[in-house]
Amino acid sequence: MQGMSIIVKKVAQLLSGLIFMYGIYIITHGHLTPGGGFAGGAILAGSLILLVLAFGSDVMRLQKREAGSSIMESAAILGFLLLAVAAIIAGAGIFFYNYLPKGQLFHLVSAGVIPLYNIMVGIEVAAALFTIFLALVIYKEELKQ
Amino acid sequence: MEIILSVILIFMILGAIFALHAKDLLSALVSMGIVGYGLVICFLLLKAPDLAIVQIVVETITLIIMVAIVLDSTRHELKEKAAIRHDGQSFMNTRLVGNIFIAVFLGLVLFYSFRLASAHLTEFGEHGLRMAGAYMEGAAGKTGSVNLVTGVLFDFRGYDTLGEATILFTAVVGVLTVLRLKGKHS
Amino acid sequence: MTLYLLCFLLFLVGLYGVLTRRNLIKIVIGLSFMEFSIFLLLVLIGYVKGGEAPILQPGMPATGFVDPLPQAMVLTAIVIGLATNAMLLAIAIRLYKKYGTFDIRKINQLKG
Amino acid sequence: MRYIALYIVLFGFWLLLTFSLATDNLIVGAVAALLITPYFGNYFVKDVGKWVQPHRYVWLVIYLFIFTWECIKANFDVAYRVLHPAMPIKPGIVKVKLNLKTDMARVMLANSITMTPGTISVDIVDDYIYIHWIYVSSVEPEIYSRKVAGRFEKYIKMIFE
Fold this sequence. Notes:
Number of strands of chain D: 3
Oligomer: heterotetramer
Distance between the termini of chain D: 19 Å
CATH class of the largest domain in chain D: Alpha Beta
Shape of chain D: elongated
Number of domains of chain D: 2
Number of helices of chain D: 5
Number of helices of chain C: 4
Strand content of chain D: 5-15%
Mean pLDDT of chain D: 82
Helix content of chain D: 55-70%
Radius of gyration of chain C: 20 Å
Number of domains of chain C: 1
Shape of chain C: elongated
Mean pLDDT of chain C: 84
Low-confidence stretches of chain D: none
């Protein structure tokens, strides 16, 4: 897949990192402000998709990235499950029990496990969307050959 | 409030009808964008900012995938379509009466079922869900989360989120399997 | 009640698209219209007149919110809708590679 | 060098977003910026050394005023052309030679031209920029280059080169 014109490339250079940071902000503040794992994960995937669309890349590199994001996705969903299972061991024996201390309201570190769940779901959604996009791009590239 | 929502919904319905009847797939996708972003405005008016954020990003990514990947390789499909429709003109007329009959019958059945179902709905703006009280009163104290939607999503209803994550995982595996052209070892 | 009726009309438009269109991409578009109408209906049911967004503010009373339960359910449903859309698109372009067309009736004729 | 610049930009963006100086907030922002700097550092702009030269910011402020003035003038021009009963438009695409050397300056010139009503930059190919213009007033390259791009070019040269 070849990239786009120099205007798109330069603007993507400047903005992709900031968009990624904004996604992280949405994820980590999911229990305080609107947003959360789903929205933030989609924003992270959007910034990665922007980079791929603007710069383009050859099939080999894309395949490597696809393998990486696929591994990330599996690891994130495994982490989500482990966090939920850990409640059985650490808490009152209830699946999905909020076993960490709640902390104070309106603080960033509060609400027990919910921020960790948010981060896991964010990684999972981002990696899933990026993998789907990369699979479609690789299919298209291989079809051309 | 109700009037604004109705107007936006009417625009969405018009956009949807145009999207289904557009000759060009690209204009169909742009009209689909009208419906999706109209939904974002409806969510904002209905005081659901979480949903608005998710919907606007998801809609954008869907449009990007459709335009950049699907349409890019299949644009020439559109030119064949007009010719086919021209041939089928006389063929359609003989069946037209039957089709209209079926459509009217289906519409009547669906509207009857809507009447039956809407008798159990409360008026717009009145709260009629029984479960909601338990999720709202003192929910911030129970979960520690200021955003009540996140609290419901990850604490009260964690199983649903787990199921959603599983569906997403399955969809990714399915996409990877369907689109694999060459095996790893060939 | 007019809002529920309009939602239902949007659902019917999507259903009409799924039943009558021949192009696979348009069928996917019709399916997503049906999804949209259901999302909107659920959020409409959860709305309370004069309610606030379900997010606490420091120093404000914790009452008078919109119902958070339908919103949380719709939040998962939107992402699931994206996943199913992606799956449908993948199958559609795979079919395009095999038969060279998106027309569903032609695909029916070209069995095998 | 560019990694450090990216880290500072990201951390500043985080502080602007959250707008609080609580300890946990700062720690989370620092860690997040540290995590994403290695990935996006390769893609960030190369010549960040220019960012610390103060005279460029002076020119930037001057340029903002000039740009606003040009924008207002172009707005009235386009409004006149739209409201006039005869619709005196003569659209066309012109090809302008660029005097700017760095990519960043070229991109900023293209963006400025697009932001001004009546002109849209279409593409940059080699040393030429292609611009769609609502009223092509002359076909001489020197005259239309000065009219479309020349008014911004010298200021952008001072800022970005």
